[in-house]
Amino acid sequence: MANCLVARRQLELAEFDEHAFLGADAERHLDECADCRAFASDMRALRGMLADQPRVAVPPNFETSLKARIRREAPRYREPRLAWIPTPALGAIALATVISVGFAVRSNFAPLEPANVASTSNAAISLPVSPAQKVETAAVRPIAATPVAMTTARPVVARFARSTHRTTLTTLVAETERSANESSLYTDEDGHPLSANTNRDRVTTIGVVTNKRQINQVIQVSTGTPIYGTDSIIPSRSAQTEGNNDDSGPM
Amino acid sequence: MSSVISYHVELDLPRTVSVDAASDHELVAATKEGDEIAFQELVRRYRNPITNFVFRMLDDYDRAVELAQETFLRVYANADRYQATFHFSTYIYRIATNLAISELRQRKRRHFISMFTPWRRDDDEDDQPLDFADERPLQDVELIDRERRDAVSRAIKTLPEKYRAALVLRDVEGISYEEISAILNISEGTVKSRINRARTMLREKLRAYL
After folding, report:
1. DSSP strand pairing (A225-226 vs A205-211)
2. Which of A34, A168, B168, B191 has its Cβ near the most Cβ atoms within 10 Å?
3. Which of B69, B81, B177 has the CB atom closest to A79's CB atom?
């Protein structure tokens, strides 16, 4: 004979599902079990109460109001083209894309052996990169209203070393190696020439913020201060003079 | 209604059917081609069931009407992307269910940050009986019925949203388990389990009225 649990399950199904029926075992159990008979009675009453719930109807102005809303709001409710893709799948695709792009960028700017670069002049710094990648030398563009006059008519050896911010793929660091006399190209705020020995960290390591192949900004990695486009480090007088002699104008 | 709608079937000539005889899929196809009458017919067919369903979910008539309109708005705005994979009723109930559940969750968040009743328990966790039976004889049968209906509404309102949606779709709207499974995007077994749980909870809450 069916126990209470099985009988009640069948009772519930029979009460609420038009296709289900009470088995003979459950019928016999009901005859003998007062609790289950009470349960059956409760279920029947509950079904009646739920079915008797009054149905609400829309107000008379429903369609007029809907038309007005459609005219006003329909464009806002158009789902984006990718809405049919579940959000987790969309997230996974986005993540895979970001990782792929990250690897591609890193491989484009893999550490290189230092190489001499052609002299730059008139606001242009050449950053040598992999010949295989055929990366074009990008011009440094000023980001401040009063860009610093950098006379850079001398070789700058640089190589892309690593990303400063792993989450920002467009931020790369160029490590510049310069000879001692090149350090006099820059002075600190007090006008003292920056020596490669004493200020190596500040001078020889600079960051280059790029937007793809276009170099937009040169920053000093140790302090985060932009070198190019600010007056935190300015060319020394001698460099300026020399630059003027070289007919190298401000960037 | 004597109006007709006309719509194109892929690689076929345009078909013309009367609005009354058109299936839901045909009405959506015509709506997709800009037929306002077809959309009006869809609204006419589903406006009351959808409003009633959302009302049972929220127990708030004005908001139910707004969300029913929003449901139709979404159907209209995305008609060109509608795929006739499911019944149209499944599609529209799914939109309405999502809107109603979203509304319930927003309400719950607003309730959580209430400064006036920070100690109040969440309704979903409230297992206490809603009302105690009033043993006094009532003269007005209609009054008894109204009180009973109100008690059922309040009891439904206290069910957790996942149980509530399944129970209302089945026991109030009379939708099949299979379609509920498609609307809620869960297995049929889970639908039955949720409905069973919801009925058990309701039985406890409404013991005084059974």
Report:
1. unpaired
2. B168
3. B81
